[in-house]
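Entry type: protein chain
Record version: 2
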Amino acid sequence: MRAWTAPEVPNLSVAGPAVAVHDTAASGLVTTAPDGPAKLYVCGITPYDATHLGHANTYIAFDLLNRAWRNAGHEVRFVQNVTDVDDPLLERATKVGVDWVELAQRETELFRQDMQALRVLPPDAFVGAVESIPLVIALIERLQAAGAVYKVEDDLYFSVTADPAFGEESRYDRETMLALFGERGGDPDRPGKKDPLDCVVWRGERPDEPAWESPFGRGRPGWHIECAAIALDNLGGTMDVQGGGSDLVFPHHEMCAGHAQVATGAPYARAYAHAGMVGYDGEKMSKSRGNLVFVSALRNSDIDPMAIRLALLRHHYRADWEWTDDLLWVAVDDVARWRSALALGAGAPAEPVVTEVLAALADDLDAPRATAALDAWVAATLGTDGLADTSDSDAAATLLPVLDAALGLSL
């Protein structure tokens, strides 16, 4: 599957610091130390609807990590999936009377356009669930050889007790796991399972559902095994960071780790980083609640994508927060103000701002701290708080590449 077109990103003359992120498994900050290319896997969309701001918040967060690593001198190997066959997609296609393949292709293309407009760096491998079915089959066979898979009727299940490290990623107790598993697509009450938390890795064929041939009978992959198979095939072993929204901590990332660790005997990831949830009208943005704000709708309303990006950057990626229209209009005004200051060429001293921006993003992707440094520079340059400071004749030339390379803002 093709990704989107990469933006041109300037190379900086100054290197950024080593990058630290909050690791869910360690429950604290860890400094990344890639051995060779930095390996990043970010779970992608299930393309049954357009990209909403909750999605954008997550993907911009890990775009900051990608950029921070590059600015620190690392090559980056970034992989992302598209779950282009799964229950929510099939249910949506049936409800609206559209072929599920057509729906997936249409919404995936819209996602590409949104990511390109927001200047998110594209993955090196953008892989759909359907095209990864041979990888899934091969991984299930490895799990079978390890004795970690069993059959319930026509479905195959992964035995979570096969992974001695199961539970170490999320750090949840069993009661919490059971509750979340039931809420997030699991089937803890299904008869015949060895453990209520065991998850399906191969779903046997159902009437009126797509299915593919396999050594286990016709069917399709489970959700968690899809990401594990794609990650192992494209990253080749333990990754530096597994990323996604905080709603993926359990069961998705826990199960992915379990599959991979049983198959390989090695840790799935050195760190698990999770973005917070974006709310609207008092609830988390979700299709079921009908409170989505779509990136494409904002773009089609002539909103500058850089204002959308700035509005998201103003919140720390791990925070849960509420979207409001006022946040967007403030960002629209701020983008115009920043452009006015940069258009002067000269301005307040830029080097301290460069140092602060790179340091902030290396410190758990602290975009609010980085944007605050730019706000202060703009205020000083335009004289918002007094006399304008234009003592640095090359200020704009110094700052524009950093804004782009570090924050993804093309101004």
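Comment: Residues 11 and 405 are 7 Å apart (CA to CA).
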